[in-house]
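REVIEWER CHECKLIST
Item 1: Sequence provided? yes
Item 2: Single chain? yes
Item 3: Sequence as submitted:
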Amino acid sequence: MVKSFDNNETIRRIAAGRTAVCGIGISNLPLIDFLLGFGAVITARDKKERGQLGNCADLLESRGVRLVLGERYLEDLCEDVIFRTPGMRPDLPELRAAEARGALVTSEMELFMELTPAHVIGITGSDGKTTTTTLAYKMLDLQCQRSGRGRAYVGGNIGAPLLPRVGKMNPGDLAVVELSSFQLMSMKISPEFSAITNITPNHLDWHKSMEEYTAAKLNICSHPGCRRLVVNADNEITRKIGLGSPLDVTFFSSTKKSYAEIVPKEKNNATAVFERDGMIVRCDGENEEELMRVSDILLPGRHNIENYMAAMSLVYGIVSRDIFSEIAKTFRGVEHRLEFVRELDGVRYYNSSIDSSPTRTAAALSALPEKPVVICGGYDKKIPFGPLAAVLVERAAAVVLTGATAEKIKASLEVRDGYDPELLPTVIEPDFEAAVWRARELARPGGIVLLSPACASFDRFHNFEERGNFFKNIVNGF
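Item 4: Structure as written out by the authors:
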């Protein structure tokens, strides 16, 4: 370790007692390495059987890690410090019982937030958080390079885990973190600069209610440390959060044209960022400043204008204004987000596998110049498909449904006002590859085929990246 963290209470407990790491996944293996550096006595617990872990089990045991595997992996949870993986609910009876006897239940991201000396910029939301996180990081990284001061890091729900790098971080550094509701649900520290891009129904297969999901997102700005909050003024839930916050709040809007339209007179400590006459403008209620031309942005769609507004609002005052335009003129997007794959026989193919909710699919459809053949369907997150049906009726040329939710989406379409199967051909192809080929058959020269599932990938794929890469391989193999 570059730095000593001996004064941190969690590290002292780890060094003095026993530690459990629940979940032996890609993100937790670096965590185990980090903890072993403090001489931790570690038990790694996972629902998988030994055969499913491959060489990983042997490697961990060779380093002195005890394994508890299988369906009963949380029995006798006797360790002093317990790290839960993000997908594990913090209110599981076994975790609650451990807390009742005095154990500390935490996570990799919570420990990072405790230990890092860097300024933390946190982004959450139902849609847009990865692009916003990437933009904020690129802006800060370029500023650090130009000034020769500090270093920018990016991580959290994307990229490599940040905790193993915390020992190299300094007070002048900046860490940009994407935070999911799973990570935020038990967080007790908030980033210094926080943004909520939007909140719409999502992950309701895991969260018990929309209220719980919203409360988890709100955790990004509810605890000590946060001093700037950025929220979407066009989203009802995030606007309400901003209006009720005692923090310095920046509201961004891609639909309203002035400070007065966005910020009520009674709201203090508020700034607005909006688009007017092709410019993105910032106003603190008295002074206006033009930040960037909208035409500089290479990424298509109004949702990406919002992503830029959120990122610029987060790093405003840290980054030179000319950097905004420089990034916009060169950044072509994150993989699997309206990613152009190829053109064949006059048809353009786009991979937007990240679109795991109806609102993401709506944003993708609104960004395209014409109505596409859309491939939808996947894992069921128990969210309503009425909004998806509405946008498909309005903006799709044809729909190919696949995966576990195909019948549910079809049923939502059939009861949607304005739906006409003659005008909007809709087919179900249970096999994903067959669905891609069917979309090709339905497309016409000059048209578009768009993979925008509006669902998670877990019914067939490990993650959205695997799904997107599979789609690209099929398309490139035509």
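Item 5: Key structural point noted by reviewer: Residues 118 and 171 are 5 Å apart (CA to CA).
Item 6: Recommendation: ____
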